[in-house]
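User: Please run a holo structure prediction.
Assistant: Happy to. Please share the sequence and the ligand.
User: Here you go; the ligand is zinc ion.
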Amino acid sequence: MDTSGVILLVLLLGTLNTVQCQYEESKSEDFEGSSPIDDIPEEEKYTVSALIERANKNAGQELDDPEIIEGDIAVDTGFQNAAPCTSRRHRNCKWYRSKDGRVYVPYVISSQYSSREKAIIVKAMNSFANATCVRFRPRKRRRSKDRDYLYIKSKRGCWSYVGRRGRRQIVSLARRGCVYHQVIQHELLHALGFHHEQARSDRDMHVRILYENIIRGKKRNFKKIKTNNMDTPYDYGSVMHYSRYAFSRNRQPTIVPIPDANVAIGRATQMSSWDIARINRLYGCEAPVLV
Ligand SMILES: [Zn+2]
């Protein structure tokens, strides 16, 4: 290599290094302190469940907070074993379908957010409109149909109730750690009635849970639920699927896909096509909605 080649190489390496440093900085300023989730392989650190797990270290500990189960699902104390919204017997937690075939979900976004954060939240909400009949739209106070609505607020951590629960319901998206497209989609999917993919009734045919590697006290986060899977296949690419190292106490995997242990799981950066199909099936909007 001649001199100019060497200079070019040095310059290139320098640039790469700067980019890497900036990346580290922007990531690390979101979070404080370290936890087992910080010790997992680099490519697993920014999965939906790793982001949520990191942001939720102190979730559910404010006085007026609901109890948080399964990592990021809010329940009122005493209802920890509430039936899943998507089970056949509990359809009343769905949002209402309007005569025009659409499902309008009114929302209010707290003034805590910056305009940049608000734009990210609204963009994630609008992403549902591209592929489903669900329409998140600002709540109109005087409209009686808007009695039930989502209140997007920055509390401790990222969490949501499962399904519509009546009147105002909080979806917490902490400014620190939760305002990411895939995390917002994940919490909104809970609010629409969906559970985690690895909680599915048929999950044991597709993943193995390694209980010995789970943080003590967090094993309950991996329980199975009698879900209605809407005739959709098990989906490793769902934005609702935990990642391989979710709630690991020892940097070892807690969820391993079977039969092929090397398949990537829980790395979705947006809703999968099966996530979208499930929304459309639950809300009966499979036919294309006319725009
Ligand atoms: Zn969740």
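The chain has five helices and nine strands.
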